[in-house]
């Protein structure tokens, strides 16, 4: 499928698409090896991300009139769920945060770069609004492909924290004013994480807590290798 054809299949979703979204979410969740990888959205969550009261927007991909992928954005404002609070943003930056939320692709259509397409389109729309500076999202530390895709798009891991249902989540961030430009680090470290061990006891958790950011990841069986940049100069 050409890039032009992909753009034609990608639309802004509306409330009328909610049943198709819920159905696709159910199909995706049923295919996951662990329910801990995602915190599913409720119909209320999706209604917010479908433009209710300008709280967000959602993009979808249709093939033969079937929804095969979607991605959501929420604008948390000063709500307590704003990830800017977790990242200790100054008060004046809190309202400039946009959340990259659910992003699913049906298993039969994976490998066609829909995740990248949806990410790029969401970022472009957010930038065009001119009101938001910070993209934030959460990803399970055990969801390798989502982590790798997010880092490849320029987000960085800034924090490891228990979030939804007390599950561990990486909190990732991208400063739209910086783009893909990373701060000059004071150090560069490679950290190997055994996924069978407690995350809070790993060196990765310690370095993130000390202010390092993770920018790359690779995998070998049960071990993830992260590249971390120390506090910038």
How is the topology of this model organized?
Blueprint: H1 3-9, E1 10-12, H2 18-31, H3 43-49, E2 56-63, E3 66-74, H4 83-86, H5 91-94, E4 97-105, H6 114-129, E5 134-139, H7 144-152, E6 156-162, E7 168-175, E8 188-194, H8 203-209, E9 213-220, E10 223-229
Parallel strand pairs: 4-5
Antiparallel strand pairs: 1-2, 2-3, 3-4, 5-7, 6-7, 8-10, 9-10
Summary of the model, kept short:
This protein is of the alpha+beta class and 233 residues long. The chain folds into 2 domains: 3-181, 3-Layer(aba) Sandwich (Aminopeptidase); 184-233, no CATH class. The protein is built from 8 helices and 10 strands.
Structure description:
This protein is an alpha+beta fold. The protein has two domains: 3-181, Aminopeptidase (3-Layer(aba) Sandwich), CATH 3.40.630.30; 184-233, no CATH class. The protein is 29% helix and 31% strand. The protein has helices at 3-9, 18-31, 43-49, 83-86, 91-94, 114-129, 144-152, 203-209, and strands at 10-12, 56-63, 66-74, 97-105, 134-139, 156-162, 168-175, 188-194, 213-220, 223-229. It has a seven-stranded mixed sheet. Strands 8-10-9 form a three-stranded antiparallel sheet. β9 (213-220) and β10 form a beta hairpin. The longest helix has 16 residues, at 114-129. It is globular. 33% of the residues are buried.
Measured by DSSP, the beta-strand proportion falls in 25-35%
How would you write the strand order of the largest sheet? 1-2-3-4-5-7-6
Q: Which term fits the overall shape? A: globular
Q: How large, in whole angstroms, is the Cα Rg?
A: 18 Å
Task: Round the mean pLDDT to the nearest integer and report it.
Answer: 89
């Amino acid at each position: 499928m050409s890039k032009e054809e992909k753009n034609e299949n990608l639309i802004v979703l509306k409330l009328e698409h909610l049943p198709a979204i819920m159905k696709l979410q159910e199909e995706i969740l049923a295919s996951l090896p662990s329910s801990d990888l995602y915190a599913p959205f409720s119909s209320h969550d999706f209604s917010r991300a479908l433009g209710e009261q300008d709280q967000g927007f959602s993009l979808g991909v249709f093939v033969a009139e079937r929804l095969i992928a979607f991605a959501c954005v929420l604008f948390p404002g000063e709500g307590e769920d704003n990830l800017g609070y977790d990242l200790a943003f100054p008060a004046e930056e809190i309202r400039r945060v946009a959340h990259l939320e659910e992003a699913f692709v049906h298993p039969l259509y994976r490998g066609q770069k829909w995740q990248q397409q949806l990410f790029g389109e969401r970022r472009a729309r957010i930038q065009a609004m001119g009101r938001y500076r910070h993209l934030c999202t959460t990803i399970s530390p055990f969801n390798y492909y989502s982590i790798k895709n997010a880092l490849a798009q320029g987000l960085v891991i800034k924090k490891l924290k228990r979030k939804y249902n007390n599950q561990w989540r990486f909190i990732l961030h991208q400063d739209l004013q910086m783009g893909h430009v990373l701060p000059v680090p004071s150090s560069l470290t490679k950290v190997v994480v055994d996924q069978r061990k407690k995350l809070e006891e790993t060196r990765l958790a310690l370095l993130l807590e000390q202010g390092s950011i993770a920018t790359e990841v690779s995998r070998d069986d049960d071990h993830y290798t992260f590249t971390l940049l120390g506090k910038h100069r």
